[in-house]
């Protein structure tokens, strides 16, 4: 029984020595990291923004100032429709709630207009 105890004690001693070595290695690594941080160069990046789109949004402009061609181009870009719109209503609402809007009526109904909601997914 004593020999077994001695073997176990030896294993414990080795583990303790191993534990002593590990923190020392970690401490050295931390010190090296601190030294590196002090000498690191920091690059400064700055961005200059150029305003590309100076046009006011279509709906924010006065209806008198907007041409039919502009309405048509806007409608096509928003709706992905190849045809022009059938009608357009450009209006503003003022009161407790204030907003400006452009309402387009397409020439033809979408092909999937009467399909069920489950099929659209």
Summarize the model shown.
It contains three helices and two strands, in the order ααββα. The chain is an alpha+beta fold and 121 residues long.
What's the helix-strand series?
A: HHEEH
Low confidence ranges? none
Supply the helix-strand structural class.
alpha+beta
Helix fraction, binned, reads 40-55%
**Tally of extended strands?**
2
Q: With helices defined by DSSP (H or I, 4 residues minimum), what is the helix count?
A: 3
* Cα-to-Cα separation, first versus last residue: 75 Å
Numbering strands along the chain, what is their spatial order in the largest sheet? Answer: 1-2
Mean pLDDT: 76
What would you call the shape?
extended
Radius of gyration: 37 Å
Kindly estimate the percentage of residues that lie in beta strands according to DSSP.
5-15%
Largest sheet: 2 strands, antiparallel
Task: Explain what the structure shows.
With 121 residues, this protein is an alpha+beta fold. The protein has helices at 2-39, 68-79, 117-120, and strands at residues 87-93, 99-105. A two-stranded antiparallel sheet has the order 1-2. The longest helix has 38 residues, at 2-39. The termini are far apart.
Task: Offer a few descriptive terms.
alpha+beta
Record the SSE blueprint.
Elements lengths: L1 H38 L28 H12 L7 E7 L5 E7 L11 H4 L1
Antiparallel strand pairs: 1-2
């Amino acid at each position: 029984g004593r020999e077994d105890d001695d073997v176990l004690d030896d294993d414990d001693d080795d583990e303790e020595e191993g534990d002593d070595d590990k923190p020392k290695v970690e401490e050295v690594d931390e010190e090296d990291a601190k030294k590196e941080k002090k000498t690191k160069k920091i690059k400064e990046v700055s961005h200059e923004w150029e305003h590309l789109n100076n046009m006011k949004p279509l709906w924010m402009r006065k209806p008198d100032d907007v041409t039919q061609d502009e309405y048509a181009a806007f409608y096509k870009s928003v709706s992905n429709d190849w045809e022009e719109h059938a009608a357009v209503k450009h209006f503003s609402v003022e009161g407790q709630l204030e907003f400006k809007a452009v309402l387009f009526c397409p020439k033809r109904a979408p092909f999937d207009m009467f399909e069920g909601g489950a099929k659209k997914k």
